[in-house]
Specification:
- This protein is an alpha+beta fold.
- Helix content is about 15%, strand content about 30%.
- The strands form 3 sheets. Strands 1, 2, 3, 4 and 7 form a 5-stranded antiparallel β-sheet that branches. The protein has a 4-stranded antiparallel β-sheet with strand order 8-9-10-11, with helices on one face.
């Protein structure tokens, strides 16, 4: 039996993963992610595989965009950081008498804005990421613009960004495959994704409108 824990800190959804067996008591493992501060959010997931893969469970349902059926669907795969849950760090318990410990109700996330403020942008760039994968499978290369992906994207998700996006194709070198960088302007932040699933968030320094 193996349990895997995966965490992603910082501005991108880029995981550090650790596989642990039932008899693994070593707590010396480290990652390069900086220690969290109060208010920081990390993407996190846990997965457990039992009976040689006949039983699989994860903490957060693994729902991603499926361009073949044009809807979000569940996958048996924990290596999907865009589908992980969030953990928000608060002050030490002995420093706060009224701190909440536990899950934030969905209605508070939606109605009171307690969720990830960049969530619409993250969903959008990942919509394009999965669409590009399908486009390459069909056409043998990545699409050069968002319009070419219409058949594989969700029009409602993409609609707010049709005029504020940029697709940059990257030629492969030294036997590396060709790639791309797709980015959108969201409230003054540039949110991008590459063909390697790397999501990045940075302050807007370039006008891509």
């Amino acid at each position: 039996t193996t349990t895997a824990a995966a965490v992603g800190g910082g501005g991108g959804d880029n995981p550090n993963e650790e596989a642990r067996g039932d008899d693994d008591d070593d707590d010396s493992s480290t990652t390069t992610t900086a220690a969290p501060k109060v208010g920081d959010r990390w993407r996190l997931n846990f997965s457990r595989v039992e009976k040689k893969g006949d039983i699989n469970w994860t903490w957060q349902p693994q729902r991603i965009w499926d361009p073949m059926v044009r809807t979000h669907g569940g996958k048996v795969n924990m290596h999907l950081p865009d589908a992980w849950g969030y953990v928000q760090f608060g002050p030490a318990v002995d420093e706060c008498n009224d701190c909440r410990i536990g899950q934030v109700p969905l209605e508070e996330i939606v109605l009171e804005g307690k969720g990830d403020p960049l969530w619409p942008a993250r969903v959008t760039v990942m919509n394009v990421y999965y669409a590009q994968r399908r486009y390459r499978d069909v056409h043998g290369a990545f699409a050069s613009d968002l319009n070419s992906l219409t058949e594989y994207t969700d029009a409602k998700i993409i609609a707010p960004f049709v005029d504020t996006n940029e697709m940059i194709l990257i030629s492969g070198a030294d036997d590396k495959e060709d790639g791309y960088l797709f980015r959108i302007n969201f409230g003054g932040s540039i949110v991008s994704v590459t063909n390697n699933r790397l999501i990045n968030v940075e302050d807007s320094i370039t006008d891509i409108s």
